[in-house]
Amino acid sequence: MHEHEKWLLYALEDLNMAKLAILPNYMMVRSALYHAQQCAEKTLKAYIICRTKKLPPRTHDLSGLITVCATFDNDFIDLCKDAEDINPFSTATRYPEDAYMYPDVNHAHIIIEKANNIYNFVCQKIRQ
Questions:
Q1: Pick from 13, 12, 122, 15: nearest CA to 73
Q2: Host domain of residue 117
Q3: What is the pLDDT of residue 100?
Q4: With a threshold of 0.90, does the pTM exceed it?
Q5: Of 44, 57, 70, 125, which one has the greatest count of Cβ atoms within 10 A?
Q6: Mean pLDDT per 10-residue run, the chain (128 residues)?
Q7: In the prediction, which pLDDT does 11 show?
Q8: What's the number of domains the chain is made of?
Q9: 3-state helix, strand, coil in the chain (%, to 5)
Q10: Of all helices (H) and strands (E), which one includes residue 6?
Q11: Under DSSP, is residue 104 helix (H, G, I), strand (E, B) or coil?
Q12: Alpha carbon 21 to its chain's center
């Protein structure tokens, strides 16, 4: 198995965990958002690994990872808005802070769908 495929497996697990976390019996919205962000992050890093055969930058910044991916394929620019929307959930959901508003499940569905779109987009690009 190639290194980027390992990263995609981890990303898919995060995506599946995000989806499970918002099922009616669970309703762990914060965890769902965190795992959605982790899916997007690992997916973008998988693409970078696929293209460079090197470990990706150590960052949680999806916008920065999109910029790196776009150096190989300008189509990645189309993901900027989704990345920007998902980006805060790498840390914002992890600790209770006054500035953080607890998200609702409807917002979680939207964020998970954006992570899913990034995952599918990257998988398609890697297959090409």
A1: 122
A2: 3-127
A3: 61
A4: yes
A5: 44
A6: 97 98 92 96 98 94 98 98 94 67 88 98 97
A7: 98
A8: 1
A9: 70, 0, 30
A10: helix 3-21
A11: coil
A12: 15
- Structure confidence at residue 95 (pLDDT): 72
CB proximity list for 20: less than 8 A, separation 6 or greater: 26
pLDDT digits (tens, 9 = 90+) for 56-89: 989 999 999 999 999 999 999 999 999 999 999 8
- As given in the structure block, the two tokens for residue 10 are 């981890």
pLDDT of residue 98: 60
Query: What is the sign, positive or negative, of the torsion defined by CA atoms of 23, 94, 84, 104?
Result: positive
Neighbours of 126 (CB within 10 A): 17
| CATH label of the domain that carries residue 19 | 1.20.120.330
Query: Which element (helix H / strand E) includes 4?
Result: helix 3-21
- For residues 95-115, one letter each, b for 16 or more C-beta atoms within 10 angstroms of the residue's C-beta and e for the rest, the string is eeeeeeeebeeeebbebbebb
